[in-house]
Amino acid sequence: MLLRHTPTEIKERKVLTINPAKTCQPIGAMYAAFGIHGCMPHSHGSQGCCAYHRSALTRHYKEPVSATTSSFTEGSSVFGGQANLLQALNNIFTVYEPDIVAVHTTCLSETIGDDLPQIVDKAKKDGLVPEGKKVIYCSTPSYVGSHVTGFSNMVKGMVNLLAESSGRHNGKVNIIPGWVEPSDMEELKRLASLMKVKHILFPDTSGVFNGPLDGTYRMFPEGGTSLQDLASAGDSSGTLALGEWASADAARALDAKCKVPCRVLDIPYGLAATDRFIDALHTLAGVPVPEEVERERGQLVDVISDYHMWLYHKKVALVGDPDQLIPLTEFLVSVDMCPVHIVTGTPGKAFEARIKEITKDVPYEVNVKAGGQADMFLLHQWIKNDPVDLIIGNTYCKYISRDEDIPMVRHGFPILDRVGHQYFPTVGYKGGLRLLEKILSALLDRKDRDDPEETFELVI
Amino acid sequence: MSIEAGVVLEERRDQVHRVGEGDFELACNRASLAGAVSQRACVFCGSRVVLYPVADALHLVHGPIGCAVYTWDIRGSLSSGPELHRNSFSTDLREKDVIFGGETKLADALDELIERHKPKAAFVYSTCIVGIIGDDMEAVCRKAEERHGIPVIPVMSEGFKGSKREGYLAACKALSRLVGTGDTSDISPVSINILGDFNLAGEIWILRKYYERMGVQVVANVTGDGRVADLRRAHGAALNVVQCSGATLALANMMQKEYGVPFVRASYVGIEDMAEALYVVAEHFKDKDPGIVERTSAVVRDELEAIMPELARLRKDLEGKSAAIYVGGAFKAFSLIKAFRHLGMKVSVVGSQTGTSEDYKELARVTDPGTIIVDDATPLELAAFVKEKNVDVFVGGIKERPIAYKLGVGFCDHNHERKLALEGFVGMLNFAREIHSSAMSPVWRFTPRRAEQRS
Question: What is the CATH code for A25-162?
Fold first, then answer.
């Protein structure tokens, strides 16, 4: 029992987070920055932060992850990090030659009060930013929000510092995918292309964190949204922002800056959320829904019907980020499963309200919590008090899964011990099929394992 | 030879050396250049990896959530008993705490955790932000210690104070507060502490068995599968055996000064170094226990007999292949170079994150002409060196693995994420198997660079 130290009795905690269901802002900013082609993410703080984020992303993607750091010392933490950042920008552009550097702060540089706009401005005036190269930045204090907030802040930084309005429409729709996997970003682009909707998707980590092995190490892989597209996003006819927590701020900033109207949707996990995404594309671009998309939808409904009796009222515990959990919970409810314990470390009252609304007809008591003490320790305690049939969440759930002998499906960040998330999407109808396949396999593998001989069945 | 021109930062030129080319002078132990893609981490990281294997202690990270998340059970330090160290405890500092201070939060968190888990001691790790807002950790810990009657030890590991090396020092200082507080009356005169092993993949269990077969009592594991009670009486051991370049050397020094416990340095990687580690201990105790030398020879003989046939078989395939090494501390690199010799392999690139000038001089002495020696390398440098030297297998840590693979080169994790014990005699065999499994993998035949070379 790895988590034998978790007591069943739940006492309210005020100050502690145990086995967190979140991490800090900078890694979100770094992940988002990797979604720009030719971008070097830069961590303005101690070198440990940068090393940790790179390691975490490497473990999740099994891909090289290069980012730079201001390498704060005791001196910089007293006198400010301006000298470090100026030297860093000079070195980065000289040696690594990225098209763009995306700087995010850390708790350290935030607290000592480094002024990024001023420092970057000075770097430009001092000639440290070569002609045609860009530097964007955002503020990501680790003690505010979560990793999701950091992602959102960096995407907003892209809009604020790169998007431009030329006064001419480009006939495209912006899609801000939120914190999803490279495979998901690829799938969103595929769906938009199937619909014949011209689009700019940003950030876009497809081709960055799911690249091929071709015998070459590239510091800047082939994927990522181009700087031209990011500039052109200001000329698009509209923006679909997927996820209130990770994407909405950037979309609203773009509306304010370039008058590009936006709609905030859920990430299209599962049937209903994908319906809404397809419908929004259809409305916004004025295009019909092609037969192929209808067919994919039909296949998903087909599999749900084939196996609905195995899903019926199965209890599920979920952990993840708000933008993922809302449509996932909706999907589970729509296939007659019962999400009963749901936690996210990312703060937000609206989250709890949405989940309560989605689960209002679930025939069990539903526990939901967001923020500080909404962690895996609490989730585990809930499960001990009211066991579930399935756990859906990141790799850290495997402690609970093992201790309580409950099957689990890996979804979210980070996944440190399985392959697949890089390559197989869970968004869209096809992604829904994959989710369903994973859920059914987990449940039915368990049934096959546990059934006594006399009820062990060949055909299910 | 102009490969450095493209990929090595101007200021870093003197941190790269080619053996046999000019006088040896390698700059090192300097802060990473701002803007370099350094593979290094911070002070907190260093402290955390050294202390976290103490399995019956509470480890509370005082800082924003990230510091706790990124060090949550990543190292695979195994415990034969409690698993408290596998949990991640954080005060999860928020904006309000940064403004008004986090001392109350820390005190409350300690109360709650100590009451619930009844740990034998608590380590409280300071992070960057705590260093800036100036929480008086020392005072909060002292008061908690008075309230709960267990040692509550602040670890002064603010990230910005340096690299992992400074973190090791902070960890040693924290450990030194435990040492000397336990009863030593039943400790054998032929006894040691194992310092600088973290029980990755159960390695310290292997080592303890060797020493026990020699008739040596192991008092404390510092810190793999560590226990607070053992640490408290560690000063009663007759000798400290210290592995790993920097991690626990400071503690050995402190214990020598304070309690007169002498120390020897050891490496458990590779055949010679493993045998040497046992023999040096036997030598130390041979006056007290004359039979120890013979028993030690027997251990070495038995263990070698068990692994040699398989090792010879693996060597046949690996003979003539070349390796690159990039590790945290340079000390490990010496052992790896020798281990590769046993496999008939040549090391053509070797580097470390935190080596000292003496380390690098010694590396230059034991490697062949043309070998590249590098301090605090960047990925571009590593990739360029691997290509230039046409390396077959890379030994490194998590961040280097995918780079090696992209180049079509095998890999062995000799860092946190090893899954097989690589120490001890059996570790040499495991190492050979890992190198064999990766260097000989058919997957490299599908990679373009290798395919070109063969045609």
Answer: 3.40.50.1980
**Residue B375 contacts residue B27 (beta carbons within 8 Å):** yes
Angle between helices A147-162 and A248-258 (to 10 degrees): 20
Quick count: other Cβ atoms within 10 Å of Cβ B139?
Answer: 12
**Rounded-to-integer distance, Cα A97 and Cα B379, Å:** 14
Q: Which amino acid is at A2?
A: L
- The torsion region of residue B374 among left (phi > 0), alpha (psi -120 to 50) and beta comes to beta
**Contact call for residues B60 and B89 (beta carbons, < 8 A):** yes
**Residue with structure tokens 């950091």?**
A150
Q: Three-class SS of residue A344?
A: strand
Quick check: pTM over 0.90?
A: yes
Q: How far apart are CA B56 and CA A174, in angstroms?
A: 53
- The two tokens of residue B206 are 């292997």
Fold adopted by A173-291: Rossmann fold (3.40.50)
Distance, in Å, from the CA atom of B99 to the CA atom of A56, rounded to the nearest integer, reads 29
Could you confirm whether domain A292-454 is CATH 3.40.50.1980? Answer: yes
* pLDDT (0 to 100) of residue B415: 82
| Nearest CA distance, A235 vs chain B (angstrom) | 34
Give the C-alpha separation, B401 to B284, whole Å: 40
Q: Which residues of B touch A66 (CB under 8 A)?
A: 37, 379
Residue B245 has pLDDT above 80, yes or no: no
pLDDT at B23 over 90: no
Task: Please answer yes or no on whether A13 and B43 come within 8 Å at the CB atom.
Answer: no
CA angle B257/B260/B262 to nearest 5° reads: 100
Verify whether the Cβ–Cβ distance A16 to B113 is below 8 Å.
Answer: yes
Q: Using CB atoms, pick whichever of B34, B43, B98 lies closest to residue A84.
A: B34
